[in-house]
Amino acid sequence: MAAQEIQVPDLGDFKNVEVIEVLVKPGDQVAVDTPLLTLETEKATMDVPSPAAGVIEKLLVAKGARVSAGTPVALLKSAGGPAAAGPGAAPAPASTTGRAPTPAVTAAAALTPAPVPAPTPSAPSAAPAASAPASSTPAPINEAGFSAAHASPSVRQFARELGVDLTRVRGSGQKGRITAADVKAYVKGLMQGGAAAAGGAGASGGAVSGGVAWPRVPVPDFAQFGAVEIKPLSRIKRISGPRLHASWVNLPHVTQFDEADITEMEAARVRLKDQAAARGVKLTPLAFVLRAVVRTLQKLPTFNASLDERGENLIYKKYLHLGFAADTPNGLLVPVIRDADKKDIYELARALGELSELARAGKLSGAQMQGGCFTVSSLGGIGGTAFTPIINAPELAILGVSRAAVRPVYKDGAFVPRLMLPLSLSYDHRVIDGADGARFSTALAAQLADVNGLLEAVP
User: Fold this and answer.
1) Local structure of 50: helix, strand or coil
2) Is the pTM of this model over 0.70?
3) Short-list 6, 94, 72, 87, CA closest to 363
């Protein structure tokens, strides 16, 4: 039987993606969907699954290689079983061990995120770098941060040769990528005994010289106080952590708190739950929140914009893609519902369910975590009264939703029980001021109270 050529599936907008781990070797028996390779994009890591059961006859790529959609990666001598996924199937996000046949997750969206997800911002994507200390001796390398830095293998090798910790270098390349010139500039700054001249992310990810010397938190030897156990962070957290840090220190966050009366909304949801189930849809409160967010963004389009690289212009998007934080076994991912403004409440609920299931199963593609305009992070199913979500840059705002509670509200001359939903809106204060933030939360509360508007058909 002729060997089957396995190709890299669709990666969305990503090209020239690095192979960071090869999970099989020639002669290995694999099943359908067994991960073969792990790829690392700017927003996530993903596994390339086997499309059929069989034996790996030959590997066509090695660790460190660069691949794109359609690149041949292996030859498989098929066991004759039906292929569960063809070359166009989306790669599954990688597991934390990189070897388990069951797919796990990694991020976006970075989300971010969660930032959230989390999540995963595309700019700035490298961890914000401290400037060089006034010393000619490089700081010790932070291995965890070094491995997550946004740099090519050749730049990583170059940095190691010079003893440079990439977590302290700001990238001036596309989407914050660290270049060899950035490493050289950092070393030059060290030798001059002053601030590093490495390019750094400016107000909106543009390159600027110099930087801020962020003090490190000293970590003691905890074993001196008692027994300890060390477990590595999941890959998704190692990737999303520096990006959340970048968003937090580069964007001036303001978080505004408000609450919405969702008494009628919840009554309508309960009333329509069986009708939705008949359509195969689980109608959750989050679907109503997303519909209300869509209607609010249509009225206040600045919240659906982003700053350009120089931080001088606003890019208003004519599309509306909503991200939402999905809780998975390995951390938060931020799937994106595309064209959310063209979906009614039932279609939003269906998209929520399908993307959440893919996230939990580790089967989200890169394209399904790209292009978000605004993110919603809901902790309502877990608890809490308020929190301060980190913006999923380059978005301008993120909405946090906590657990609703029945409280006495003074209305029409008397206290009445009302179901109140806490809202936490974080926004980029370079673009959005407090008055705009208040307008958004007020408009959102009004949309959540307008049940008929939430349920009306979408043209």
Assistant:
1) coil
2) no
3) 94
Distance CA 294, CA 109 (A): 19
Contact call for residues 20 and 235 (beta carbons, < 8 A):
no
Task: Report the distance separating Cα 199 and Cα 206, nearest Å.
Answer: 9
User: String of b and e for 36-57 (b: at least 16 CB within 10 Å)?
Assistant: bbbbbbbbbbbbbbbbbbbbbe
CA distance 418 to 405: 8
Q: Rounded to whole angstroms, how far apart are CA atoms 195 and 414?
A: 63
DSSP string, 324-367: E-EEETTEEE--EETTGGG--HHHHHHHHHHHHHHHHHT---GG
**Nearest in space to 419 (alpha carbons), one of 427, 407, 410:** 407
Q: DSSP labels for 89-151?
A: SPPEEPPSSS--SS------BT---------B-SSS-SPPPBPPPSSSSPPPP-HHHHHHSSB
Distance CA 173, CA 171 (A): 6
Per-residue model confidence as pLDDT tens for the chain (459 residues):
678 899 988 876 678 888 888 889 999 998 888 889 888 776 566 788 888 889 999 999 999 899 988 899 999 988 654 444 444 444 444 433 333 333 333 333 333 333 333 333 333 333 333 333 434 444 566 666 676 778 877 788 788 878 888 888 888 876 678 888 888 888 877 766 543 333 343 333 333 333 455 677 888 999 999 999 999 888 888 888 888 888 998 899 999 999 999 999 999 999 999 999 999 999 999 999 999 999 999 999 999 999 998 889 999 999 999 999 998 888 889 999 999 999 999 999 999 999 999 999 888 888 899 999 999 999 988 989 999 999 999 999 999 999 999 999 998 899 999 999 999 999 999 999 999 999 999 999 999 999 999 999 998
Instruction: Assess contact for 56 and 34: CB atoms under 8 A.
Output: no
Tokens 């292929």, residue located: 83
DSSP letter string over 7-46? E----TT--SEEEEEE---TT-EE-TT-EEEEEE-SS-EE
| Annotation marks residue 321 as catalytic | no
Q: Which among 355, 216, 229, 227 has a CA at the least distance from the CA of 287? A: 355
Q: CB–CB of 156/146 below 8 Å?
A: yes
368 phi and psi, to 5 degrees? -80, 0
Q: Which residue among 245, 253, 321, 429 is the active-site one? A: 429
**Dihedral of the alpha carbons of 335, 20, 246, 372, in degrees to the nearest 10:** -20
DSSP notation for 221-279: -GGGTS-----PPPHHHHHHHHHHHHHHHHS-EEEEEEEEE-HHHHHHHHHHHHHHHHT
